[in-house]
Amino acid sequence: MDLNDLKKDIFKIAYPYIKPRPNVTLSIGVFCRDQYATFIFNGSNVTYDKKPYIYEIGSISKVLTTSMFGEMIQEGIVKVEDSIGKYFSAIPDNHPVTLRHLANHTSGLPGIGVLKNIYNLFDSQTPRDPFCPYSLNETIHYFKTHTHEPKAKFRYSNVGMGFLGYLLANELHTDFETAITRRIVEPLNLTNTFISIPSSKEGAILEGYSVRGHNKPPLQMNEFMAAGAIRSTVDDLLKFIKIHVGNQNSGYQLTHQATHTISKYISIGLGWILEDDIFWHNGSTKGFSSYLGFNKKQQTGVVILSNYRSPILATNPVHMGKDILQLLQNSL
Q: How much is the pLDDT for 271?
């Protein structure tokens, strides 16, 4: 099977998304076993240029964070059931929330609530990262004052994952940006993956657009970078998930084990959403949206990066990604 033979089918899947977006640059990368192909749509034109378009990948950053976490577990640096208090002196040593709770969104941290959002509007003195209702100090205060066993209810939390990255970096005696660079980016040779934009890469950074097509400024996260601050390319993320599909990194494999059941068909590992035989995550910032997913049994995978924030109900990278994975399955 030649993956380039699938370009017409992939275009059919992508067309409803790209048609109403005049400034779209949509990058789609696929692999099936040892074959790779990348398709770049500039509007309705498909191109094969090799320019490494760089996107904000939003919450896909989380599975890079948990991949680092898996390696640190494998190396004995941390343990998945360690209390967060072990890694932060201001929190009690025996605090019942563990690193696992942060990694699978069961820490008990509140989601984005209406009252908290209203409070934040009138509290302009407290800097908070985008999509994070709590600052680092507020998060620490929350855990200091909530010392009961968290209920095992899944509640997606940018703050929880951001705090995990903060604790892991502390244990490595560095900051998160340096930690993820040394532990993930450099070993995998992800040459266009970073948080701070190097001057040499500025020309490849895409402009992002809102749902309504308004240009959005670049994302800036300071305290909870681990939750969504990473920028990358389709080629780099294909490398990343190809390592996950293989068995050569035992730390990465730890992140695939289900740690909490969300519903009959969906569970969560360490960061990854597990649905049937698919491991996936998506991402969204004010001007970008993204998806990556893979099937270990079939050795197939897809990465989709868009410079538009996607509406919830319309065609978006999650829908396209799942359709393309099904397309790859049907072609085997």
A: 98
Distance from C-alpha of 227 to C-alpha of 80, rounded to nearest angstrom? 18
Q: Would you call 248 helix, strand, or coil by DSSP?
A: coil
Comparing 16-20, 126-130, 197-201, 276-280, the range with the smallest average pLDDT is 126-130
Residue 15 in tokens: 């067309």
* Separation in Å, CA 264 to CA 103, 194, 268, 270, 276: 20, 36, 12, 18, 10
The three-class DSSP label of residue 15 is helix
pTM above 0.85, yes or no: yes
* Mode of pairing for the β-strands spanning 231-232 and 215-216: unpaired
Per the prediction, the chain carries an average pLDDT of 92
Strand order in the sheet with 260-261: 45-47, 35-42, 25-32, 300-306, 289-295, 278-284, 273-275, 266-268, 260-261
pLDDT, tens digit (0-9, with 9 covering 90-100), for 40-87: 998 766 666 667 899 999 999 999 999 999 999 999 999 999 999 999
Residue pLDDT, tens place only, 94-105: 999 999 999 999
Q: What is the CA radius of gyration of the chain?
A: 19
d(CA 70, CA 252) in angstroms, rounded, equals 5
Residue 241: what residue type? I
β-bridge mates for residue 281, sequence order: 292
Query: What is the sign, positive or negative, of the torsion defined by CA atoms of 77, 283, 14, 48?
Result: negative
Closest listed residue to residue 139, CA positions, set 116, 109, 165: 109
φ, ψ (nearest 5 deg) of residue 301: -160, 160
> What value does the mean pLDDT take over residues 111-123?
61
296 three-state secondary structure: coil
The confidence score (pLDDT) of residue 251 equals 97
